[in-house]
Every structure is written in C-alpha cells, then in structure tokens.
Design brief:
Blueprint: E1 3-6, E2 10-16, E3 19-26, H1 28-36, E4 43-50, H2 55-63, E5 66-74, E6 80-86, E7 93-99, E8 119-122, H3 127-135, E9 142-146, H4 149-154, H5 156-163, E10 168-172, H6 173-180, H7 185-195, E11 199-203, E12 209-213, E13 216-220, H8 234-249, H9 254-271, H10 285-298
Parallel strand pairs: 1-4, 1-8, 2-6, 4-5, 8-9, 9-10, 10-11
Antiparallel strand pairs: 2-3, 6-7, 11-12, 12-13
Helix pairs in contact: 1-8, 3-5, 6-7, 8-9, 9-10
The protein binds adenosine monophosphate (AMP).
Adenosine monophosphate (AMP) binds at residues 8, 10, 12, 26-28, 82, 98, 124-125, 150, 232-236.
Length: 309
C-alpha cells in the first residue's frame, strides 16, 4: 500500500495580523506529504521545483522518508511562488501574487515504481495536470482531489473532466458554492456528487468540516484553539491527515471516513499554530493521538436513558 501525492512544491510569502515572512517553504504537495508521513509510508511525491529550491528543503523531505523519484528539478526556471495576506478574520485571505514559474511547462512523469499506488492525492495544482497523473497509474483504491477558486474560475472544463475520475473531493464552503452554483451546501453537495465524487468534504475554516457520503452527512467540530498564527496550508494538511489515516487503517467505509476527517482536522489544527509548515516538522505520535482524542471528546454526547422524550 502506498500513497502518491502530486501538487505544488512552492515558496510562499505570507502576511497575517501576527507576522510576516517573505519566503517560506509551502505548496500543496509539501503540506500533504509532510502530514501523511506521520501516518503511513511509503509516500511518493510528484512535482517540480526550480533552480532556486534549497538543498535543505530537499533534505527535509528525505528526513521524512518521502520518495522523491517523481520530483523534477527544472533548472531553467524558478520554483512556484505564491503570496497571500490574511485579514483579522483568518477565514479570509487575499492572494497577492501567483507565479507559476516551472509549473507553466510541467509535464508530470510518473516513475514505474509509483504506478501501483493505492491512494492518490491530487493536491491543488492545475486540473489538467491532476488528470495527466491519473492517466499514468493503475486503478487505485481511492482518488482524492483538492482544488481552489483559482482553478474553478480559470480551468473549469479541465476540472470537470478530472472530477469524473475522483472518489473524494475536498474543498471549502465558498469553493463548493462556486463549483455547484448553489448557495445551500446540502444542495451543492448533491450537485457535486453528480459531477463524479461519491464523497465530498466541505471545509468551513475555523468552523469545522462536513462529510457527505452516500450514507449521509457527518459534521466534524472545529478545535477551539487559542492562538491561530497562520492558516496557510491548513486545507492541504487536512487532506494529508485524511489520506494518511485511510492508508494506515486500510478500510474505506463511512465510519472510517469519519475518523479520517477527525485526523485531518487534528493535523490542520497543528498546522495553524506556527508559520508555514513549521509545526508539521517535529510532531510526535503522542501529540497527534492526544489531539485526535480531544477532537472526539469535543462533540461526544454520552448516551443516557432519559435524554430523549
Ligand atoms: P491552503 O492554505 O491549504 O489552501 O494551501 C496553501 C498553499 O497552496 C500554499 O503553500 C501555496 O503555495 C499553494 N497554492 C496557492 N495557490 C496555488 C495554486 N494556484 N496552485 C497550486 N498551489 C497553490
């Protein structure tokens, strides 16, 4: 059983009300793979970086035993760069700059040793590239896709084509409304199911997440964290925890999807505590299990004989 992760490997400039950095390691594939690596190996990365990508960042992936055979180093250009600014309401951010750089002519080539991956995480990246990855692999157990407004607005036809082959779609509430053209999230979920994904997860920023499966709806709580420092990467980290748990446990029923949503939420709650992926570098299994247990307790209601009438 292996996990394949494709997505952006980037440098980010981030401004939050609490601090600013001009350049920090980022990208969807970075967050997903760092997070999944706590749950399951082998983990196989597909992406591209440019001539400016630091050896120390390559080493970080190696230290986490992430397989880099599918990471291309394109010396003819620079690494993908994204710049964003968050408001006091940390659910809202403005994208100030997106420089695709080496992603503009990236052609993903999947190494032979990656082709039999069982779980495929299509991190946020151009939907046409996500589709190209699927074309090159054997039929996996589960295809999970994340995307964002940038692609819903700029590459809708490609996205709709790729979605037909996706099992689980993970997006935030405003993206779900935009993709479906439907303001009500339950109706939006029905429309999105018709586009391909049998499972849909709608993230609601600091307000938790909704899981829509054929079996019904599950509402995951939000963690009442005192200090949110930087929300960048929380969505990708959620995906990494979700996929990581499914790979580790090896079952894909509705109950296990619920656990996976809670592991995703727990990992995202760590991510936001520090700048960029910093908090994801040195977590311990004990910390992860403790946070997962906290989450479970948050909305558990002990059954009592007289609590219904
Ligand atoms: P998230 O906060 O989970 O939505 O993800 C933030 C990460 O997404 C940042 O590290 C960015 O480098 C990356 N990112 C931003 N825009 C794009 C894009 N258009 N395509 C791929 N990755 C992106």
């Amino acid at each position: 059983m292996s996990i394949l992760v494709v997505g952006s490997v980037a440098y980010d400039g981030i401004e939050t009300p609490f601090g600013k950095t001009d350049r920090i390691l980022g990208g969807s594939a970075t967050y997903i793979s760092l997070t999944s690596s706590y749950f399951h190996k082998p983990l196989k990365l597909v992406g591209v970086v440019g001539s400016d990508f630091a050896d120390s960042d390559i080493q970080l992936f190696r230290d986490k035993n992430i397989d880099l055979e599918g990471l291309q180093i394109d010396k003819s250009g620079k690494t993908f760069f994204w710049k964003g600014r968050y408001h006091y309401d940390l659910n809202n951010r403005d994208t100030l700059d997106t420089q695709l750089n080496v992603f503009e002519k990236f052609d993903p080539v999947i190494p032979d040793s990656y082709r039999d991956a069982r779980i495929v995480c299509l991190g946020n990246i151009a939907p046409a590239l996500q589709g190209k990855v699927l074309e090159q692999i054997d039929k996996p157990d589960l295809v999970i896709l994340d995307t964002m407004n940038f692609w819903i607005e700029g590459a809708r036809a490609d996205l709709e084509g790729t979605l037909k082959r996706v099992d689980v779609l993970i997006i935030n509430d405003s993206e779900a409304r935009e993709l479906s053209g439907e303001p009500n999230l339950v109706k939006a979920a029905e429309k999105i199911h018709d586009m391909g994904p049998s499972t849909l997860i709608i993230k609601k920023g600091e307000h938790g997440a909704l899981l829509f499966t054929k079996g019904g709806v599950f509402s995951a709580p939000a963690y009442p964290i005192v200090d949110i420092f930087d929300p960048t990467g929380a969505g990708d980290t959620f995906l990494g925890g979700f996929a990581g748990w499914l790979a580790r446990s090896g079952t894909y029923d509705d109950d296990n999807f619920r656990r996976a949503v809670i592991y995703g939420s727990a990992m995202a709650s760590f991510c936001v505590e520090k700048f960029g992926p910093e908090r994801l570098i040195n977590l311990t299994a004990e910390e992860i299990i403790e946070r997962y247990t906290d989450f479970r307790t948050l909305s558990a209601i002990p059954v009592q004989q007289d609590d219904v009438f």
